[in-house]
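pasting for ref
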Amino acid sequence: MAAPKAPVLDASGKKSKDVSLAEGVFAVEVKPHLVHEVVRAEAAAARAGTRAAKSRGLVSGGRSKPWRQKGTGRARAGSTRASQWTGGGVAFPPTPRSFELKVNRKTRKAAFRSALSDHAGRGTLAVVDGGAFGEPSTKAAAGLLRAWGAESPLLVVALPEEETLVKSFRNLDRVLVLEPSELEVGAIVWARSLLATNGALERVQEVVST
């Protein structure tokens, strides 16, 4: 089986050559169940989990019995902080919690490889030189995407030091620019096209293949 390849684009969006991709990262069997598990875990970890309400033990006041137990004709009551009273506590209040789900490291990397292999197999992955732009230009970045024929939404993976390229793409609509250390399976699945710089591609291959 031939090694997967991806086109290398110049600043105008034209293909200058093809680059070979690591078979162990971009040519593996796509396993949707692993991708689903990891994306679900990433979405759960992003939740703040800070929702809370006061129980009757946290609401101030209501120390004394509002009226005597018998003889008033009213229902018996022990505190004005009970949940049926206005201003009372919540019966089963939500409390701050973590929604984090445990995912094994091997499972997470297998999901990364599946998501990347899907892009490589569909031909929606391309590589660009990190120094392709001499100065930041959103217009030039948009022209590159038009010439390539990229579908939106687009994910761009670049190194932090490739600032000129990052600034060129980050203002485009439905374009997400991430560093390799920020890359998640959910972002790869969300994108219909994936563009990576040479340096970022090497970094991703190193991390995911080990």
